[in-house]
Design brief:
By secondary structure, this protein is an alpha+beta fold. The chain is 36% helix and 19% strand. Strands 15-12-14-13-17-18-16 form a seven-stranded antiparallel beta sheet, with helices on both faces. A five-stranded antiparallel beta sheet has the order 5-6-10-8-9. The longest helix has 20 residues, at 389-408. It binds flavin-adenine dinucleotide (FAD).
């Protein structure tokens, strides 16, 4: 720690008292996120009121202390790990949730847990659709900073589509508010959208006004199995071409199904062991769902090898529980995973399935893949054993090949996890020098001293070379 950081931390402690934790245990707990790479901060600050954050940022600018904002630390990209040390701002105490049932809006603190917002909205007949699988843990601030998605993305959209207004601090410590609690706002530049997905590099979100939609009255779930991955992804394309929009449309390849089945002891589709599947949920009014049901069944008859509607809500819940476990279940295939949340344009679905088959063959690694086929956001999981040098090299080569192919196919290197530290080697595949320069100019304009979340997104780091903590997080196998 530099002498300047010591002076700054002492000053902060004098002003905020117990809200500043410099203990070894506190700093260790804030040193990593779900990427499990660890960098120790010098203090963890838990603001109780907004003004605490302004003070932190003013002092950080004065003494050039790096500040990393932290929600729950569920990001898999290393974006909440304080790579340059300094201070961590823990937002969990700013967790108020107030539902405006007349307007269909939620007024929330950045530290509110996503599932709590959904539950509070549901009690008033409203629905907040963004649903990352980590929703029981992650925060709205983290969702906004990463533009989080989830299974409902294809029909309803991602976090960005539900943010009406934001409040928080510029990196230099001034309080700002982008938008108001109105559904229309056309006054000035839209810096709200600049903050969404900026991974804590352009400011600190303290609160948000979120859009809610009416709770769907009816739901219906269908399981479909296919001969192979190419047939499954082609079928998804055919479904969307018919203008059918399921609320959820999840694809699991053969390897993902097998992992999930072994981990849970449950069968995804009885009688279709080890086949790739698409799990669909329709949602809407009773008559909307009935109309769509007819179209979906006609589609399944022509496209799927087998199909079956879920019989009751308990079966549906069991199915989604198995789906949520498939990510953690993959660790039976290796102790290390490169989890790539890429996006593929629908026109290239079959081409991408063929590419994946080649990638598995050439790398000799298991690469279970699952994801949201309604929006092309597939989770490609390159599994390997860290202690095996050959496998590690093959994984590194496979991820390079994957990213180049995704960009060449007109896709995105990340659909919902962001760049953080893990994807920094690939940012320049997605963005040309002019685009990177424009992003850096925005960063410089808002954060001239480079205080907020330094070391992320732009400086190239090969995260898979870092040692990882051997710890189990509460959400690891969810
Ligand atoms: C099991 C599991 C399943 C997951 N499933 C999904 C999924 O389905 N979809 C999906 O999109 N993601 C998923 N994720 C990734 C992760 O949960 C999301 O990115 C989530 O939005 C992170 O929220 P958090 O509160 O944990 O943020 P953190 O991990 O603490 O932080 C993430 C980033 O946001 C910044 N940040 C946090 N709060 C603020 C704030 N108030 N102001 C400014 N910046 C802030 C941090 O600095 C960091 O850069 C999953 C992760 C796990 C472990």
């Amino acid at each position: 720690m530099s002498a300047l950081h010591t002076v700054a931390t002492r000053q902060l402690k004098r002003r905020l008292g117990a809200r500043v934790d410099v203990s070894a245990a506190g700093c260790w707990a804030a040193s990593f996120d779900s990427s499990k790479i660890s960098f120790l901060p010098v203090a963890v600050i838990t603001p109780r009121v907004e003004a605490d954050i302004g003070l932190v940022l003013v002092l950080a600018n004065k003494y050039r202390v790096p500040v990393t904002v932290r929600g729950r630390g569920t990001t898999l990209m290393g974006s909440a790990a304080p790579v340059r040390g300094g201070w961590v701002l823990d937002m969990l105490k700013l967790n108020r949730v107030v539902i405006d049932a007349d307007a269909g809006m939620a007024h929330v603190g950045a530290g509110a847990v996503t599932a709590d917002v959904q539950r509070a909205a549901a009690t008033q007949g409203w629905f907040y659709p963004p649903d990352p699988s980590s929703k029981e843990y992650c925060t709205i601030g983290g969702n906004i900073a990463c533009n989080a998605g989830g299974m409902h993305g294809g029909k309803y959209g991602v976090t960005r589509d539900f943010v009406i207004a934001l409040r928080g601090f510029l990196p230099t410590g001034e309080l700002v508010q982008w938008g108001t609690a109105t559904k229309k706002f056309a006054a000035g530049f839209n810096l709200r959208d600049l903050w969404i997905g900026s991974e804590g590099l352009l400011g600190v979100v303290t609160g948000a006004v979120l859009k809610l939609i009416p709770q769907p009255a009816a739901r219906w779930t269908l399981l479909t199995a296919f001969t192979d991955e190419v047939a499954a992804l082609k079928a998804a394309r055919v479904l969307f071409r018919a203008r059918v929009q399921p609320a959820i449309c999840e694809f699991l390849d053969r390897e993902s199904v097998l992992c999930a089945e072994r981990a849970t002891g449950q069968t995804v589709f009885p009688g279709q062991a080890g086949r790739p599947v698409i799990l669909l949920e329709l949602a809407g009014t009773v008559s909307e769902v009935k109309d769509l049901q007819r179209e979906v069944l006609a589609w399944a008859r022509t496209q799927a090898l087998a199909y079956r509607a879920a019989r009751n809500r308990a079966e549906v819940e069991a199915l989604w529980a198995v789906r949520r476990k498939c990510s953690g279940a993959m660790f039976e295939l290796g102790d290390a995973k490169l989890n790539e949340d890429i996006v593929i344009p629908m026109r290239n679905y079959e081409k991408f399935a063929k590419f994946l088959a080649r990638l598995k063959r050439d790398s000799q690694l298991p690469i279970p893949t699952f994801g949201h086929v309604a929006d092309g956001n597939l989770h490609v999981n390159i599994m390997y054993h860290r202690a095996n040098a050959l496998e590690t090299k093959a994984a590194e080569a496979a991820v390079q090949q994957l990213m180049k192919t995704v960009v060449a196919m007109g896709g995105a290197i990340s659909g919902e996890h962001g760049i953080g530290l893990a994807k920094t080697p690939f940012l320049r595949l997605q963005h040309n020098p002019a685009q990177v320069k424009a992003m850096l100019a925005v960063k410089k304009a808002l954060d001239p001293r480079g205080i907020c979340n330094p070391g992320k997104m732009f400086s190239v780091v090969r995260i898979w070379k870092f040692p990882k903590l051997a710890i189990q997080l509460p959400w690891d196998h969810k």
